[in-house]
Automatic annotation (TrEMBL):
One of its GO terms (cellular component) is 90S preribosome. InterPro entries: ARM-like, ARM-type_fold, SSU_processome_comp_20, UTP20_N. The lineage of its organism: Eukaryota, Metazoa, Spiralia, Lophotrochozoa, Brachiopoda. SUPFAM superfamilies: ARM repeat. This is Small subunit processome component 20 homolog. It comes from the Eukaryota. Residues 1-529 form the U3 small nucleolar RNA-associated protein 20 N-terminal domain. Transmembrane segments: none annotated.
Amino acid sequence: ILYGKMLHKTGKDSAGKGHSQFRKAIVFCFLAGCQQHELKIFMDLIFQPFVNFATGDALSALRAAVASVDLSKMVPLRKQQGLLNTMDVIFSKLGNLIDSYLPTMYQILVCLAGVCVHVLDRRVDIHPKAINTLKTLRQLTINRITQFFSSFDNYSFSWRDIDAVFEAVVWPQVERLPHESLSHPTPLLKLICAWSQSVRYLPLLGKHQSGNKQLTPLKYVFQLLVAPTASSTVTNMIVDIIEHLLTLEEKDEEEEEMEGMVKHRITDLEVHDLVVAPQAEQIGEPTKYGCRLLLPHVPIILQYLKQIVENLVKQSLKKRAFPTRDLNILSRLSAFVKDSDQSATLIQLLLPFLERNITRTQDVEVDILQTVANLIRLVDDPKEFVPPLCKLFSSLHSRVSRTALCHVLKCISERDESISIMADIVHKLNAWDARRVEEPDYMTRLDAYKEINHIIQKMEPSVQFLRMIIYNCCFCIGNVDDLSLRDNASFTLQEMVKTLASKNCDNEVFVEVVLDTLIPEIKLGLKNKTEVVRHEMLNLFSLVVRHFQTQPKFADFLALTNEDLEVDFFENIRHIQIFHFW
């Protein structure tokens, strides 16, 4: 009686096809309070037309169902569609009460999917009006399979269960994925995405077709990622898959530590025909399985990320939406890059995002710098990136970001000893007290200034060394509260100016160090909201004008100077008082 009510009418305003899901929801809510043997009777009634799919194991049942397909004796397509809609309600209303019936439901789903795919391959024998219904049926079946994997992640899948779903759903369609899933995610792509969301299912993404090791799900997923016409909805789902593979096992381990319980393991499932996932060469600790699955596909993923960054560079600064997730993925993948030219290109694309005029979070800065640190080890000439890295000491303000930038310089110094002294001094200039973690390491920083002054007096520094010191000293003057550190930074810059002037540096050094580096920093300091900073920068500019009197750039300012401090413009401007008249 209840089964009949579900099919036809359960009360007022519940009759008709449009209310079928409503009727099913009411009936299954009632069934949730029934005994197991009563539930079984009802389930047998629902699945009675498909009982032939429930014999034996899933793989045997699938092959038997496909081999015995008779187009004239198939269960009506509408009835199959009704069953799949009913299973949706069963999963949501009775999911935790039907454990004993799950194997039957899984086999029926796999067999329905296999038969649909097989029949669609024989389109010449099918009435044209039935093709669209069959396509809808195939989509519904794969959606229910996806729902099954997501809802019952503790289900004991055998290797034959796994082989059955691949034979019915994955292998027949995966090669067409780069062409069929361009505008929106297909059910197959959603199934693969669902597998990527559970540590237990990750081996399914590493399965290859028996006898063909080149045919794997991920291969075609990433071909779709770089397809020129793929929609953002599709690429976002694939990026989700990448993110899951990179981070899922770490999150699972963190939850396990916090909750004190054992989560799913990679070895929970017996999966045949697995690809040999390589270990990464660059890192000593064992690579997570998800990362190892991605290793063969790193070049094509980087191709996509490179395009993302290039598109952002072309946009105006106001329109740029920072791809935080993409940069985080790039940061993680950069540890596995092996190509020198590719590494250099990626670094050139990433560094502009750290410039002063771009708004970003600290996490983004650290992700980019971590990526650069990983990639810099591979480029043929890491020293070529020292000039743009120097400038970042002026634009990066957070402690974590500056520490990461120092680490990048250290990575370069490991490849090129000529900048080892510079890297060491810059590290000292940004040192923090190990005992008082919120305070700078004053003694180490003051010692660094002494070392810099000694090098400058001997006139040994390179142009890049001088630029690096200018950016760090100007940052200290503008952002550090400690008076002794500010005074030392200011004194160092003054000594640098005096030494360059006394040694008659050539024009190229003057342009690169004074005009292109020091003067822009002075301009920036003169706009600072703090009066002390403005005075320091004004005093420094006065010194530059006095010591480079012969330079045409400063000729007009020379008239403002005077040996008599009472009439010297630069001295007097610092003492002007602003009065408010009310």
